[in-house]
Amino acid sequence: MKTYIINQETVLLTGEYDQYGKLCTRVIEGDQSILVDHPPLKVISKSINYFGFSLKGAIEGAKTILGKVKMCPIMICPVQDICMFPHTSPVNHDCIWFNHSNVLHTQPMGRYTLVELSNGRSIKIQARHTAFNNKKQKAGDLRRIIHERSHTKIVLYLEPKQEYERCKETGRIHFEQRT
User: Which of 89, 64, 68 has its CA nearest to residue 145?
Assistant: First the structure.
């Protein structure tokens, strides 16, 4: 595929080299496996742009909300509640980006973690269970905080003070206070 937009059915994505040595993205969407002709961070960036935001803004926003977090999760689309988090540094070609809502359960396996996914499959990754769950927890925190902030009603009651007056002859507005 030339382009791909991350959606609620996206389970995970990771880097994969094609037969010419070009870094592409392997996407798991439901039961489908899709190879996209761009690196993972470009797919993520284009997906965020599609929803009207930017990767830089998503990273800055996540760090503002969560504090100083390494390998922070990223909201792809707050409206659709799509939040991805990396299992290792995103600069690694084999970094797996998980869609938080499609990670059902995790199990420790020594230095590895077995991640059970919403599509009925699981994947064994090289990450300690506690480290992976901390990243998963941060993604959950980001989703929850953004949801709370965007669904909290703020009601302001303002009493009008004085109005500005426009002079009929000159058309000017009088900004000084009148008593």
Answer: 64
What does the longest C-alpha to C-alpha distance in the chain come to? Answer: 84
CA dist 51 and 73 (Å) reads 17
Sign of CA dihedral 93, 32, 72, 129: negative
Cα distances (Å, whole numbers) of residue 115 to 2, 8, 65, 99, 161: 29, 18, 26, 12, 59
Cβ proximity of 47 and 113 under 8 Å? no
- Provide the token pair at 127: 């990450």
Q: What is the mean pLDDT of each run of 10 residues along the chain (179 residues)?
A: 96 97 97 97 98 96 94 96 97 96 97 97 97 97 95 69 77 69
Q: Find tokens 């077995």 and name the residue.
A: 114
